[in-house]
Amino acid sequence: MRKRFRLVYPIFSSLYYSLTTKHLIKATYDFIGFDNYIKVLTDPDFFKAFLTSILWTVASLLGQIIVGFTAALALNRVNHLKGVYRILMIIPWAFPSIVIALSWKWILNGVSGFLPNLLYDMGFASELPQFLSDSGLVFGTLIFINIWFGAPMIMVNVLSALQTIPQDQYEAAQIDGASKLQQFMYITVPHIKVVVGLLVVLRTIWVFNNFDIIYLITGGGPANATTTVPIGIEEAARVDGANKMVTFVRIVLPLVAPGIVATAIYTFINAWNEFLYSLILINSTDLMTVSVALRSLQGAEILDWGSMMAASTLVVIPSVVFFMFIQKYIAGGMTEGSVK
User: Fold this and answer.
1) Phi/psi class of residue 16: alpha, beta or left (left: φ > 0; alpha: ψ in -120 to 50)?
2) SS3 assignment, position 144
3) Average per-residue pLDDT in the chain?
4) How many other C-beta atoms lie within 10 A of the C-beta of residue 169?
5) Cα distances (angstroms) measured from residue 20 to each of 34, 61, 144
6) What distance in Å separates the CA atoms of residue 305 and residue 294, rounded to the nearest whole number?
7) Residue 153 to residue 200: CA distance in whole angstroms
8) pLDDT tens digits, residue range 107-140?
9) What's the first-to-final CA gap in the chain, in angstroms?
């Protein structure tokens, strides 16, 4: 019962506060009904940001699916060095957002950027293109960056689904005279449609709520040309008088909390279960980690299976407890940042 309350509290508290004068820097507030909704729905900046979010989501999602799906189909036909190509193509997705933002800001800088100067020197542009400051170029540029960043995730998942398709089905289809298009429509698509559908749902949610790429590269500019709903929420907090710290704690942090939680869970479990570096670098038994200590239960020829299972169960408990403690913030982070 308490766990269910923790899950639904952020949702209902957000709905309740949306009907009040709750302020980021004021302790007291009054109930005002639907006045906040009327204010938002009559604000032209909100509709502009909402339309920008829709265009940002649709264009980014279509690009990521087309590029990722095409790359997966092409890579699935590669017989040599497939693992190397997969690693190279997944690199963009492995980069932290801050690294992506700084790298592209350097590449596209309107004065010293590599790409603008290359296009100018090769005669493709009469002057240095201002990819990040020209309102006619900046939105398309950000969509391209987001496609470059997100397509590898589509590629990896679709490729995994493609590799589960039994090859004998294709062989039987070829014997029956089926064309490549027919094989794709009646064999490939039915096997991967569930994975693709799930990716579309997840990427739609993630891209629409995306905050970091736009914020770090353009901050919503120039002239609000790239302001989406998450960026608009952050700007509204500053207009209301919230300082940088209050804005970060009350707006930015809840928006990025799901990513932080997922990263924290992965990092904790990975560090807790670390074995190789601990085995190589730690010589003292006083500093031995649990993973290395479990190895001591394995003799040269005899494995004390009962003791191993008991110790393994105890070792897993901290990871489970940590996940149980932090998982509630996933739902909280996704809802508390959604209502001003």
Assistant:
1) alpha
2) helix
3) 75
4) 14
5) 8, 36, 40
6) 11
7) 11
8) 898 888 899 999 999 999 999 999 988 888 898 9
9) 28
